[in-house]
Amino acid sequence: xxxxxxxxxxxxxxxxxxxxxxxxxxxxxxxxxxxxxxxxxxxxxxxxxxxxxxxxxxxxxxxxxxxxxxxxxxxxxxxxxxxxxxxxxxxxxxxxxxxxxxxxxxxxxxxxxxxxxxxxxxxxxxxxxxxxxxxxxxxxxxxxxxxxxxxxxxxxxxxxxxxxxxxxxxxxxxxxxxxxxxxxxxxxxxxxxxxxxxxxxxxxxxxxxxxxxxxxxxxxxxxxxxxxxxxxxxxxxxxxxxxxxxxxxxxxxxxxxxxxxxxxxxxxxxxxxxxxxxxxxxxxxxxxxxxxxxxxxxxxxxxxxxxxxxxx
Length: 312
Description:
Structural class: mainly alpha
Radius of gyration: 27 Å
Order of helices and strands: HHHHHHHHHHEHHEEEE
Strand content: 5-15%
Strand order of the largest sheet: 1-5-2
Shape: elongated
Number of strands: 5
Low-confidence stretches: 8-12
Helix content: 55-70%
Mean pLDDT: 87
Number of domains: 3
């Protein structure tokens, strides 16, 4: 096992300490009695000043995570640290250290359903939603769905806390290959859900709620995404045909191409600027080469008539 461990880099073992850290800690422990080491641990965890202390702390955290996962979440170990029936079943089907067999994948997926059904499946559904609408961050939307539709009130979710939990859920999704390239839950996992009446009912209820949530909250997003893409296309067409003024394009020309009212274009322009400024350098100008009697649009209370977009 040790030789196999050293063949690959640490990044391939998510959450596991490096062999360097393990060897350092092992040497430190072997130089002390068990009683002395246990008495030192609280101060080491609190201090974390030296490299060794930080290694001990990170290893302690990793071990605590896996013990909690095995004991409290997956119920593989009981309170006496003995294998439960689930733990014994997993031990019997254990195969390669580096890859999961089909039976192991099904086993872990079932344990995830038991421990985290609503939030794990919700996370999978939002993966599809992000791909469908080309979204990068739906944490606020997830919190809204959890609070309003699932009515899970026992945990006060924040963006950061849900993000941290979703990092772990994402690893499970990737490790088990739960979703396809479009973000849909694969058929073999749907079959596992459907073959268990309890989960089948919960899944149907969850998908129904999620469908309502999507229709109520993402119709406008879809309209915006289509208009945003057309906005970019019209801008590029003016720049490529040298109709622009040093990269600046008249906003009324873009509005004309979009065929929307000034009021809707003003709303689109604000949303476009706030969302795209993270990806592009966006410049506005209020000067024209000739008399222009068109009313100005406004970005952060500043009148504008032309726009220039550059890749960051």
